[in-house]
Each structure stands twice: as C-alpha cells, then as structure tokens.
Amino acid sequence: MSVQHEQLFEKIRPAIDSKIGEFQHYQYDAITAEELWRYCIEKKWRKKNIEQLRLHEIIATIFSVSPSDIVSFNQVEFLQSNNWFAELNAEELKMLLGPVKA
Fold it and tell me: What's the chain's average pLDDT?
C-alpha cells in the first residue's frame, strides 16, 4: 500500500470499522478492514485516481460494499493466481493429472 493510501486509510478508518462491524453483525467475521480496503482499491477504484476522489465518494463506496462482493472478489483472485500446484512435486502432479483408474 502506498503512503498516500495508508494516510487515506487512517483518515477514513472509522467508516471502514463501521462497515466491518456491520459484516460481523451478519456473521461475516473473516472479512478484515485491510481486506475491505484492498477490495475498494483494486476493484471499485481500479480505473480511478483515488487522490482525486472526494471524501464522501470514498465513504459512500465503502458503505455500498456487500460481503458477497468481497467473497466473489477473493474467489476470482484465488482462481487467477498461478500457484495452484506450487506445493506438489512431479509425482503428485502426474497422479493428479493422469488418467482416472476405475
């Protein structure tokens, strides 16, 4: 996270904490403030200059995020990662990708 993003994160931290509290109320305890912030930066504001957004726009975006938005984003990020089989050795990969035995 850049220094500017960190400063903005700290400035609007009460709004982020409020949204995380809402998620926890609905039993989404695994979503963190940093995860919500990363979602907004990488998904919602991907094509925008965050420094030019007004404070009320940033907070409105944060309050508009649903738990399913973050869960879907995380699933897509996981599926797009290149490290699916990084922990498998050659023999395990061969067994995994080989023909199915009846």
Answer: 89
Cα 90 from Cα 93, distance rounded (Å): 5
SS (H, E, C) 21-80: HHHHHCCCCCCCHHHHHHHHHHHHCCCCCHHHCCHHHHHHHHHHCCHHHHHHHHHHHHHH
Closest CA to 20 of 47, 2, 39: 39
Query: pLDDT, tens digit, for every residue of 23-67?
Result: 999 999 999 999 999 999 999 999 998 889 999 999 999 999 999
Q: What is the pTM of this model?
A: 0.76
